[in-house]
């Protein structure tokens, strides 16, 4: 695999995913298409599980809810973290047991809580009193974990304050949950998506360990620490291999939560991103002026048709073309729509072959997470990202 | 209509859209739903047409491609600006004549150019040599207009350099088009979406007038000036009424392009935004800490399910609830998904009723443009924005 980013460390030992490459090479695609390799999902699940040890993996379904992926993960013994009623329904349809599915969104419609309860879901997230009240009414007696804000992120895609509450409120919500007849079992947090190195977890875990201890001291007999996601994918900058990464994280967890009964982890991106490649096409290569240093490369896929995570140029995908042996030059990369916000990489241009032209195929590597369902319904009349699972 | 933004001038005479309000009041919705009033579309078309006079309106289909809207606009005599093959197909299906549909995307798939040509489309946009070459091969002899970059925007949603080329290149492309056997008829530009006052067009038109003259001086007998979109909708800040706005713009155009044979305008937002209201629901109201000044209000709709234009807090929609008579307080507003980027208004919080709670209905006004098709396919398991046309 060729890495084109000027600053890419590229020292992560990427093995060419030959089954994926063979499939892609053997087929033509008349629109942008995500090809997912189930065997790579299996390999990644096993690697993460080997590192995570006794922790339960709850796959974050939102990363890629292709039914075949869910079914494969059910077969492998994975549990699931669902963001919505539809994701819960999907998991159950694909054979997951209700006891293995958590409703991890802290913002739930009351009727969806009731529906989930009726389906047998017994573990819910919350970060506020009003949410606990909704859960108590519509899913009486279930287990809840309280999500905390941890503000020491070093992630590439750091999280806002949207989810979680502060320490004092979290401790208070444990009491509220009890008063409401719920079973407060523990805490969750999120280190931030795409946390590239295991050691970046340490400050977050330190903070969480302190809050955990405070809860114990206040008389709460907690049993669950949900460490959320953050498991990285390779986008050109060095990351730890999945097994080693997961093992390091769990070692740090065990040290800070001695004897905790149950550990949950919610990899999403880290499970499926590297199992997918998007096959795209160059629509146009142009300059705006004879004096322009950069070319503009327009693809048939953009921010509104699958590459939403290029917002703010946060996630830098790796591109691969058949002309990568030719001389390279800097390009601004944009999507095909009549929308000026549909620009992928402009502040930090990409190096692409000088010979690139309309009609050329572009492979966008490691795009198995947060692409297919982020795609718009019909933006500018363009169809949603197609998905093929092999 | 109540306007809640602290800085809202709100002096634009908004007439309560009673047919829309009656429909919304009489129905319940179990998911976020955009309700579009065709009569308001008609009213707006007539107002814009009255102001634009001899200019042809090419409705920018991407703003809202609901088939009923296209059919209504066909009946009213509108022409259409299409961004893709699918949008062209939609217009033709709804009764538009091929001669009244322009293919305005400067980034087109070669096979789509050929398809459009076979459907009878004869007017294409371009801003680069490679695009002209594609058009010459797949749609020989058609009329083309060259899009320019105009960098003096005062719009609320200014455009990037994604579309258009500079003056020298534009003049050169007229020659290139001729050499390729195409018919270069004129220029297009875009002042930027949501250009609130007609006088903001003047600097752009001055620049374009100069380029137009240079082309004439170089021997090009141009017949078309396409002034693009930019026609505003009311989002809380004062705008000119549509007829007066359009008339002022056309007066400025006539003064700078004396005797031009054909003027095209491409309103999208300005045609349909005010004809729609989204019915949403509060999922949760919470604080992150006892000390927080702001509440967080989570809706069942967010950036990935229809409100994409809240990116960077650019477009500030107006919210309306049944509790608007109660005391107000500042709120951060976010969508329902497990995605930290799904926050609508945080830097500039909104004033919402202190009594607001989960289950309350929220009307989001003037959301008829750039909402329905921007909605994601199934982000986090949430369904796309539903659309009802009345």
Automatic annotation (TrEMBL), chains A, B:
E.C. no: 4.1.1.17
**Which pathway does it take part in?**
Amine and polyamine biosynthesis; putrescine biosynthesis via L-ornithine pathway; putrescine from L-ornithine: step 1/1
Q: Which residues form the active site?
A: 338 (proton donor)
Cofactors, names only = pyridoxal 5'-phosphate
Orn/DAP/Arg decarboxylase 2 N-terminal domain location is 39-273
Sorted alphabetically, the Gene Ontology BP terms of this entry are:
putrescine biosynthetic process from arginine, via ornithine
SUPFAM superfamilies, A to Z: Alanine racemase C-terminal domain-like, PLP-binding barrel
Q: Which CDD domains match?
A: PLPDE_III_ODC
Q: Classify the source by domain of life.
A: Bacteria
* UniProt GO molecular function: ornithine decarboxylase activity
> What is this enzyme's catalytic activity, as reactions?
L-ornithine + H(+) = putrescine + CO2
Name of protein: ornithine decarboxylase
Question: Is Lyase given among the entry's keywords?
Answer: yes
List the keywords (alphabetical): Lyase, Pyridoxal phosphate
Which GO CC terms are listed, alphabetically? cytoplasm
Q: Which Gene3D superfamilies match?
A: Alanine racemase, Lyase, Ornithine Decarboxylase, Chain A, domain 1
Q: Which residues carry this modification: N6-(pyridoxal phosphate)lysine?
A: 62
Give the family from UniProt: Belongs to the Orn/Lys/Arg decarboxylase class-II family.
């Amino acid at each position: 695999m060729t890495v084109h980013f000027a600053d890419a460390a590229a020292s992560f030992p990427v093995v060419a995913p030959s089954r994926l490459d063979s499939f892609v090479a053997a087929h033509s695609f008349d629109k942008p298409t995500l090809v997912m390799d189930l065997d790579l999902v299996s390999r990644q699940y096993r690697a993460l599980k080997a590192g995570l040890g006794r922790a339960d993996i709850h796959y974050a379904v939102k990363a890629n809810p292709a039914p075949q992926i869910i079914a494969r993960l059910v077969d492998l013994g994975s549990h699931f973290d669902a963001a919505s009623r539809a994701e819960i329904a999907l998991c159950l349809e694909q054979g997951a047991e209700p006891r293995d599915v958590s409703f991890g969104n802290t913002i739930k419609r009351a009727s969806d809580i009731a529906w989930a309860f009726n389906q047998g879901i017994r573990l819910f997230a919350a970060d506020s009193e009003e949410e606990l009240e909704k859960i108590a009414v519509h899913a009486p007696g279930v287990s809840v974990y309280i999500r905390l804000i941890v503000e020491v992120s070093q992630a590439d895609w750091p999280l806002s304050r949207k989810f979680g509450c502060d320490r004092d409120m979290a401790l208070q919500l444990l009491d509220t949950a009890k008063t409401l007849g719920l079973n407060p079992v523990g805490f969750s947090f999120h280190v931030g998506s795409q946390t590239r190195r295991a050691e970046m977890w340490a400050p977050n875990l330190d903070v969480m360990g302190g809050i955990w201890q405070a809860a114990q001291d206040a008389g709460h007999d907690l049993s669950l620490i949900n460490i959320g996601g953050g498991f990285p994918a390779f986008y050109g900058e060095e990351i730890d291999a999945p097994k080693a990464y997961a093992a390091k994280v769990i070692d740090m967890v065990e040290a800070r939560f001695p004897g905790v009964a149950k550990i949950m982890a919610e990899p999403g991106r880290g499970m499926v991103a590297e199992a997918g490649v998007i096959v795209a096409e160059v629509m146009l290569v142009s300059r705006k002026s004879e004096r322009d240093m950069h070319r503009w490369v327009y693809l048939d896929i953009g921010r509104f048709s699958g590459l939403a995570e290029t917002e703010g140029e946060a996630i830098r995908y790796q591109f691969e073309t058949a002309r990568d042996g030719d001389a390279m030059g800097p390009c601004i990369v944009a999507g095909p729509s009549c929308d000026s916000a549909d620009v992928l990489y402009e502040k930090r241009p990409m190096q692409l072959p000088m010979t690139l032209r309309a009609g050329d195929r572009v492979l966008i590597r490691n795009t198995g997470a947060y692409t297919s369902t982020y795609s718009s319904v019909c933006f500018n009349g363009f169809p949603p990202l197609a998905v093929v699972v092999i």
